[in-house]
Design brief:
two-stranded antiparallel ribbon, alpha/beta, Arginase, Chain A, binds zinc ion, eight-stranded parallel β-sheet, 10 helices, binds N-[3-({4-[(3-aminopropyl)amino]butyl}amino)propyl]acetamide
Length: 347
């Protein structure tokens, strides 16, 4: 398999996220990806490459242009408010909920930060845009690498920050640019007639679901902690099945906190059966390993060895596959768990 690494990822390094009235250290840290790279050095699975720049038109096929323009210059605007802000992260604290105007872009920076976000857990830092854009470039390059004769069966985008919570015009859940959606859109644009996006992160992929909710050419599926108790709460329920032309092309498989691999794997079998019926030309896997039993913010009970089977089950779909990297916060186990999925896929 081909692996695309993001050379800019470490520039995105948040200090603190809001949790229960306190600012606590960020869970989504650069060391996560360094552990994956270290494990890939121990267990090589393929050539590791850098990606060429991502086309703006591809980003704009996924995200609103005004959102991308905001993200590009948000850090500079934040520091312009007060030079002392350079030592702080930008964290939103005000949002336009039901009944407010979301069509207007406020002049006030804090108001724009809130307009384009949905939580106070996702700090925007000096290197956030560069990291997110370079991560999307990895996702696009991974998708494009699967075309043509002699193409590999699978390509991996080592994306950081993650992407699956980001929607057309909002960031949140540690995500800014939806890398899995960029990969799916790139696959469509290079000729795949139908693409499935399977999200195995502990948290529902609300951004990916919302981006494709009214489309029949991209089937979205997510296996995740039940949003009645788990983040992101407001989306990811079983009765969300798509709308308009996309009706029937979204499948949510929420599972209770405490779910072990045997029960998780049964949900995966349901998802894979739906994918087989859809008969896509390619698959995108939004690969979070926060389903791990040791994850500090999640409550499934997958063991490190289970990820080998998970990868093998996904390989059983028999499809050209792009992996994007999503969550996983047991930092020291991150390399083992991610590389186990990829090794299981290859076996
Ligand atoms: C990509 C991804 O996995 N995003 C997850 C975002 C979760 N944000 C909410 C985290 C709540 C933190 N709870 C801390 C519990 C400490 N015991
Ligand atoms: Zn997650």
């Amino acid at each position: 398999m081909l692996i695309y690494a993001n050379p800019r990822h470490a520039g995105h390094s948040g200090r603190q996220e809001m949790y229960r009235g306190r600012l606590v250290p960020c869970h989504e840290v650069p060391a996560r990806l360094e552990h994956v790279l270290a494990e890939l050095a121990r267990r090589p699975l393929g050539e590791i490459r850098e990606a060429p720049p991502v086309a703006r038109a591809l980003l704009e096929a996924v995200h609103a242009p005004r959102y991308l323009r905001f993200l590009e210059t948000a850090w500079q605007q934040w520091v312009a408010l007060d030079p002392a802000n350079a030592a702080l992260d930008a964290l939103p604290s005000v949002w336009p909920v039901r009944g407010f105007r979301a069509d207007l872009e406020p002049a006030n920076f804090a108001a724009r930060l809130g307009l384009y976000s949905f939580d106070a857990g996702t700090p925007l830092t000096e290197g956030t845009w560069a990291a997110a854009e370079a991560g999307a470039a990895c996702a696009a390059a991974a998708a494009f690498s699967l075309a043509g004769s002699g193409a590999p069966r699978a390509a991996v985008a080592l994306t950081r920050p993650p992407g699956h919570h980001a929607g057309a015009d909002f960031f949140g859940g540690y995500c800014f640019v939806n890398n899995a959606a960029v990969a799916a859109q790139a696959l469509r644009e290079q000729g795949a007639r139908r693409v499935a996006v399977l999200d195995v992160d502990y948290h529902h992929g609300n951004g990916t679901q919302s981006l494709f909710y009214e489309r029949a050419d991209v089937l979205t599926l997510s296996i995740h902690g039940d949003p009645r108790t788990e983040y992101p709460f407001y989306l990811g329920h079983a009765d969300e099945t798509g709308a308009g032309a996309g009706l029937g092309f979204n499948l949510n498989l929420p599972l209770p906190a405490g779910t072990d691999f045997a029960h998780w794997r049964a949900a995966l079998a349901t998802a894979l059966a739906r994918i087989a019926a859809f008969a896509p030309d390619a698959l995108v896997v939004a690969l979070g390993v926060d389903t791990y039993e040791g994850d500090p913010i999640s409550r499934f009970r997958l063991a490190s060895g289970d990820y080998l089977q998970l990868g093998a089950d996904i390989a059983g779909a028999g499809l050209p596959t792009v992996f994007t990297l999503e969550g996983g916060y047991a930092v020291a186990a991150m390399g083992t768990n991610v590389v186990n999925v990829l090794e299981g896929f290859e076996a």
